[in-house]
Amino acid sequence: MRILITNDDGINAPGLRVLTDIAHEIAGQDGEVWTVAPAFEQSGVGHCISYTHPTMITELEPRRFAAEGSPADCVLAGIHDVLKDQAPDLILSGVNRGNNAAENTLYSGTIGACIEGALQGVRSIALSQFYGPENTNLANPFEAAAAHGAAVVRKLLNDTLWDDADYQVFYNVNFPPIPAEKVKGMAATTQGFRLNTRFRAEAQTSPTGRKFLWVRGGPQHEPTAPGTDAAANLDGYVSITPMRVDLTDYTMVETLKDVLK
């Protein structure tokens, strides 16, 4: 198996080292793991692509490349340049430092890489490590992802339906904010919504008198509805959410047709 890995935290992020180990375990002795990751942190860029300017890519060592672009750029670089002679069988994105559950999913560059992978017709899985009081100060805050990541990926590859729909399915995986030994198992979930947890812009004046805006997030441990991703994570489960990038609200289409008559 040939696996392409990327992230949005950057080529030197500790989560990418965790993902590298997971990918090698999945690829096996005869497989290949290729890394194309952003040269600098790209958190929060979503599915951004560098459409109006070129992306510089540098080979740091065999099968390891840094691209001065977004995670989606890295997927495009991996498929159409680095691995142009033989496409990857699987794309893994992460392991993100922090959860990509609930509304975070919409902003995430980690997810953006998988969106692009799915649009390119490659099976794609995003992996993120929820942070909280029980794991932030561990010697390895990614302990839950490191211990259970390969099993989750293997389960999805062996037992989950993949399809060739126009908007292909991909999977969003979040590991709970607890030590590995406390993880209760895996849970199939939907995307949740944290009430009163919105991103916001806060103004700050610099010593030179100039005004700057900082984007701030809200509390990450707000409960979401039962059966959703963040709720499962806070209950000790690895959440696995199947996703597509067709943004149509099908429940409203017939209503809209009636309105437009």
Can you characterise this structure?
The protein is of the alpha/beta class. It has one domain (2-193, 223-260): Stationary-phase Survival Protein Sure Homolog, Chain: A. Helices cover 29% and strands 25% of the residues. It is built from seven helices and eleven strands. A nine-stranded mixed sheet has the order 3-4-2-1-5-6-7-11-8, with helices on both faces. Strands 9-10 form a two-stranded antiparallel ribbon. Helix 2 (71-82) runs parallel beside helix 4.
Write the layout of secondary structure elements.
Blueprint: E1 2-6, H1 14-27, E2 32-38, E3 57-61, E4 64-67, H2 71-82, E5 90-97, H3 104-107, H4 109-119, E6 123-129, H5 143-159, E7 170-175, E8 185-188, E9 200-205, E10 211-216, H6 229-234, E11 237-243, H7 250-260
Parallel strand pairs: 1-2, 1-5, 2-4, 5-6, 6-7, 8-11
Antiparallel strand pairs: 3-4, 7-11, 9-10
What is this entry, summarized?
This is 5'-nucleotidase SurE. The protein has helices at 14-27, 71-82, 104-107, 109-119, 143-159, 229-234, 250-260; strands spanning 2-6, 32-38, 57-61, 64-67, 90-97, 123-129, 170-175, 185-188, 200-205, 211-216, 237-243. The chain is of the alpha/beta class.
